[in-house]
Please model this.
Amino acid sequence: MGSTAVADVVIVGGGIVGCMTAYELSQADLQITLLERGGLGQEASSASGGQLVPLHLAADGETSPLFEFHRGSTYLFDELVPALEDASGVCMGYERSGVLRVAEGENEHDRLKQTFTAWQRNVGMPVSWLDVDEVHRLEPGLGPNVLGGIFSPDERTLSSARFVEALGRILRARGVDVREGTPATGIRHHEQQVHAVETPQGEIQTPELVLAAGAWTGLCSQWFGLTVPITPLRGQMVAVRPHTPILGTTTVSYNGAITPRPDGTVTAGSTTEDVGFDDRTTVDGIRGILEILPRLVPALADATLVRTWSGLRPWTADGLPVVGRLPGWTGVTFASGHGKHGISGAPATGLAVRQLIVDGRVEAAHDVLSPARFVE
Ligand SMILES: Cc1cc2nc3c(=O)[nH]c(=O)nc-3n(C[C@H](O)[C@H](O)[C@H](O)COP(=O)(O)OP(=O)(O)OC[C@H]3O[C@@H](n4cnc5c(N)ncnc54)[C@H](O)[C@@H]3O)c2cc1C
Model:
């Protein structure tokens, strides 16, 4: 029989969302246990391209509560990254050099120009239009099919794996009980109040549970006799190494994104595949990404293939994350379902969960994220 431990809050899942939540809660006087069945950040949070690109969420030119959530969250990195780097000694490769969205061919050019006009009016983030000469002056390596682009200086990139590594070090230094290799297998409850989280090593008594289990959160929701529809959405990625530096700016086309990294590699991706918990890389997936590389930047045809990988994004049918209290239960909070933008959304999510648990407060703007929308 296993042992019994006690915590004020137990967080299930040690990806970026669970770690950011633990980081925020650790600023209050709370005993926190973080359960991760494998290693911290081992799933989607280290597979990610690390792009902080809220404008993707206003692709039709319109803003939304989801866009506002991610825009606010993206700006939080400016204070967070230096503080975490100082406290952990981990460099996160935080690049504030902006993002370039490019149009290949006339049709895409007209479509992107329309988006630019709408963004100028609506989004409250700086953007500028680059004509064909300007776009090639900014990125001389781009191919001749690139006819223009939008440059957004406030979008960024970082290494999400390093970000989680830094959080892990800081959480341990702050006394958070971080348990890697420890899956949560269920809960003990009385009526609709959580009393403990079960693990193979014993239970952890707690009045507060946060579910941040990424693509596996839907499975965990069955502990409450329901299924919150958070499901996996596979993404595959590729890293190549050009002979000489060939790209300075993260460049996004309608078909994919390529990002120059501080170590001299260029990463590209990603696929969007509804294939359940199958996390393989496939010939088809990688071939699709490799085709984009030389089309956007011809010299990349001769780059060395370094690595391929994949990850499972936590996806919801309505495209919105699930952040908030589970109605009908006491002590159950969801923090998951961020899909393609869980890196950019993690700081705002951690903050929202802290406000819920520590201050008993819900921002009105977060109502749309509540799990209530999936509960009868
Ligand atoms: C290829 C790819 C590219 C991406 N690019 C970007 C990008 O550029 N920008 C961006 O913002 N987002 C991007 N994303 C999305 C982003 O990576 C995810 O939204 C984010 O990492 C989700 O974080 P998470 O903590 O919710 O999930 P995860 O990182 O998957 O973490 C969940 C953790 O929970 C653990 N777990 C599950 N069940 C249990 C259990 N029962 N007990 C204990 N632990 C459990 C898992 O082991 C896992 O470590 C990308 C994703 C992929 C796959």
Summary: The longest strand covers residues 304-316.
